[in-house]
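User: Hey, my collaborator sent me this sequence without any context and asked if I could get a structure. I don't really work with proteins. Can you help?
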Amino acid sequence: MKILDDEVHVDCTVAKYDSLDDAYQAYRRAIDFAKATVDLAAFATGKALTVLLEKITEPNGLTRGMAFNFPDLESRCTLFEIGKAGFANALNLIITEPELMWALRDLIETIEIPNRTPVNCARAIETLRVQITPAEMDRKKGWAILRKELQISEACLRQITDNSTSWRHGDRVYLDGETTMQIRINSWVIMNRVLEYRRRGNKTLPLSEFPLLT
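Assistant: No problem. I've predicted the 3D structure and written it out in structure-token form, which is a compact way to encode the shape of the chain:
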């Protein structure tokens, strides 16, 4: 890695490069390396520094913007579509309930920094549980209410929370890409259901519209 005129360059050597997934796997490692370098400088200077990787030069020499798109995530948002009605109402929901805004940020950060997926998704779902249930309610009862109101299976929630335990305790064990993506997708669905729940006046989501999430 090198920094030239405030631009960060990360060179990657990969075993193969045939698809967008190969590009994303290279990005996963490059962003961690770049952020670690800049974070160390921020630690030494006490400054709020950050880094974004915006372009990729492929093995064929072609340079293009690096914006990864996940259709599997896009299709999970039923509350509104970009450019159509509903966005303003959804925005009002999250800016008047800051905890929803923070949970949303935790989820979006998993695209930018994939290796934060286990911790961020679990933290987002924990935040949503607190928002759905009464303030002083026991955690176990709170999870049961969240499942009932949003039509979510216990196994689905456990996959998200259990896979974060080691990471939250400082033991960052390997988590395969398929499991990581499934955790992210289900967390997206739960976030969308919480917003739908708020939009509908905090009424239990009907199974006919929201099949049990497993």
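In plain terms: Residues 71-199 form one domain. You can pass these tokens on to your collaborator as they are.
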